[in-house]
Amino acid sequence: MHQVIARTWRPQRFSEVVGQRHVTQTLQNALRLNRIGHGYVFSGQRGVGKTSVARLLAKALNCHKGPAPEPCNECDSCKEIAAGRAVDVIEIDAASNRGIDAVRELRENVRYATARDRYKVFIIDEAHQITPEGFNALLKTLEEPPPHVVFILATTELHELPETILSRCQHFAFHAASFAEVLENLEKVCAAEGIQADAEALAAIAAAAGGSLRDAQSRLEQAITAFGSPLEGPAVLRLLGAVPSQLIEEVFHAVRERNREHVLKVVARLVEEGYQLPHFCSQLVRAVRNLLVVKLAGPEPQLLESSPEEAERLAALAANFSEEDLMRFLDILLALHQQMRYTMEPRFYMELGLLKLVEAERLVAIEELLAQSESGDSSRTSAERNPAGPLPAARVTGSTNPPATAAARPAGLSPFERDTLRKRQNLPGSNADAAAPPAAQDETTREDLPSREETWSQEIVRRLEARSKHGLVSLLAGARWEFGEQEVRLRPASAGIAAILTDADRQTLEGVIAEVAGAKLRVTLADNTSRAVQPLRSGVAARGAAKPAPAPDAAAEAQVRQDPEVREFEQLFGKPVTGIRKRKG
To answer: What's the CA gap between 12 and 471, in Å, rounded?
Structure first.
């Protein structure tokens, strides 16, 4: 009767185990030093050799020439264990013997001596299926079994085992087999079975196995049954439901050429030929990962999950994209793969995801945008870059006369440092060059820092001149401007402007300010000496208005301004204190 490849090629010696050297070497050392434990836990994904190693350990313990690091496979004990009919090696399926009654029966069997062999070995497969009551009943027996008993618990769900069980056993974690190890094993099996298979076919089987050697051997058995010999890549891919690698490469060429129509045609072709789109998405994820590996580390066989021929094609394809593009592609496809697991319309999501790949190269990294905003454009003033931007916080600026040039921001300064420097420049008696960091002093002395308020005040004067308001322009000459969020304060160079300002001039000034600032602001006048603020009124109202409040005593104001706390306050907030007056009482 025919025996499948997965059973025919089950390891019969520790040296034949694939990819679990850390486990086999430790067990062989224990056998060689006669330090055999009474309980073992073998954990790992399906098809990596947990049960096979458990049988090998049982054979090595009961071999007539042992206990030995390698079973002889010639004595009656080794042959019976390999055939699965040894009396003293009991294999239990915990999925169907999981309750407390099954554990009680096991405890009764433990008490009896062996029938012939040296050890009675209990191999409990899928041990995580045992109920909590069953585990509790097993604790005492597992902790102190008879000297002739060895327990081996195999599980794919280690976290389901109680800590009380794990603390009584030696734990061995089985690793998933690497792509290269699986591919090598498949080539060895095909050579022994006389099967011709091309590299693409074996690579597709190894990739579909997902690290499980048994899965790879089962898929190889299926492919041999379907096609015989030789095995060709396209046929095997179709059998496994995988998309041919040429179609994957077509997608990336279309992305490179930004051909949106072609990627939509690829999805339509996949749907018509019956391919599973979620599986195609997982292939794209794997392909982008391999492209990124090739881009970063070159075609390293131990890092790539592909055949040597495919690695060469990947290297040529990776040259068309940058590292940033590939990382962006991988992020998009991983999110798409997660969405397609639950959606009812996978085609729509797949089309949208591929269109995102096409447009991904047009995206600009946020770091690049920040760098561009920091450098700016020296040929454009701040008003040209943002002529009607949001109003800044209120700040006293210089006169309306603009600087000769609108230079770029000083290099080497953070936005916070530039803001602090700009505020200190407007403080009376401050030294901006001394406040600036040493590395930027030379640049700040050479470059002017035009503020938005200065640019706006210049634009206001320019528009008034364009409207032939020369008289109003002369009244505003030398004035200081304060732009706030809701109002504009004017500190004229000479007093009495409010008394001679006509209603027409007032309305014109308010309209031009609203045009430049992009918002309607309340305009007020302030005396440059007393800093008293009065709202801007018509000429008649100004002449009939009450007299302004008397200015505070000059000596008292000077004394207040010399106070260290007041000066520290002004230095911290970048504005002078206004409205100094005596306290009543």
So the answer is: 107
Residue 565 vs residue 435, higher pLDDT: 565
Mean pLDDT taken over the chain: 78
Q: How far is CA 94 from the centre of its chain?
A: 40
Q: Which residue has the tokens 């002449």?
A: 543
Angular region, 263: left φ>0, alpha ψ -120 to 50, beta rest: alpha
Q: Under DSSP, is residue 524 helix (H, G, I), strand (E, B) or coil?
A: strand
The continuous run of DSSP H or E covering 242 comes out as none
Which tokens is 93 given? 């399926």
**Cross-strand bridge partners of residue 93:** 125
**CA atoms of 561 and 576, how far apart (whole Å):** 9
DSSP strand pairing (396-399 vs 170-173):
unpaired
Backbone angles phi, psi at 487, to 5 degrees: -150, 165
The encoded tokens of residue 536 equal: 């801007």
For 32-47, b/e burial (b = at least 16 CB within 10 A) is eeeebebbbbbbbeeb
Tens-digit pLDDT profile for residues 343-382? 888 899 999 999 999 888 777 667 667 777 766 544 444 3
- C-alpha angle 256-331-241 in degrees, rounded to nearest 5: 75
DSSP string spanning 188-207? HHHHHHT--B-HHHHHHHHH
Would you give the end-to-end CA distance of the chain in angstroms?
116
- Give one DSSP letter per residue of 397-449, joined into a string: EEESSPPS--PPPPTT--HHHHHHHHHHHTSTT--HHHHS-GGGHHHHHHS--
CA 171 to each of CA 40, 42, 44, 57, 140: distance values in angstroms, whole numbers, following the listed order: 6, 6, 11, 14, 18
